[in-house]
Amino acid sequence: MSSTMSPPAPAPAAPASRVTTFLFALSVVFFLVAGLAIVVGQIVALAAGDATAARHWASAVAPYAFGGASVSGLLSFALSYKKGADGHTPSDGDDEDGRDDEVGEDNGRG
User: Fold this and answer.
1) CA-to-CA distance for 38 and 81, rounded, in angstroms?
2) Which of 20, 36, 62, 68 is deepest in the core (most CB within 10 A)?
């Protein structure tokens, strides 16, 4: 056996995690497109000289954009608690090398 063994490959993501990540990406794209539709629709209505139509357009499309933003926000919150392949969450205080490094602690590194 070699002393330079590579670490084990990370386990594939769980199906629920992949579905959640896909839904997050889909909801982000949806609310960005809906927001763009609001802005472009208002520009077109204002260029046509109809401020009332611009307000109506925004009030008709805004619930979809805000709904998509809400869903993506909730999914991003849920994904922030996703455990990594090693069982730690990204906010466990570990560095990329997997060791706990406290500020001011003499950890043997120069």
Assistant:
1) 33
2) 68
Q: Which amino acid is at 68?
A: G
The pTM of the full predicted model, rounded to 2 decimals, is 0.62
- pLDDT tens for 18-62 read 899 999 999 999 999 999 999 999 999 999 999 999 999 999 999
Count CA within 13 A, CB hemisphere, residue 25: 5
Strand pairing partners for 100? 94
CB under 8 Å, gap of 24 or more: what pairs does 74-80 form? 75/20, 75/23, 75/24, 75/27, 76/24, 78/20, 79/17, 79/20, 79/21, 79/24
The one-character DSSP state at 13 is P
Residue with tokens 């991003």: 76
Q: What is d(CA 47, CA 49) in angstroms, rounded to the nearest whole number?
A: 5
- Residues in contact with 85: Cβ distance below 8 Å, sequence separation at least 6, in sequence order: 10, 11
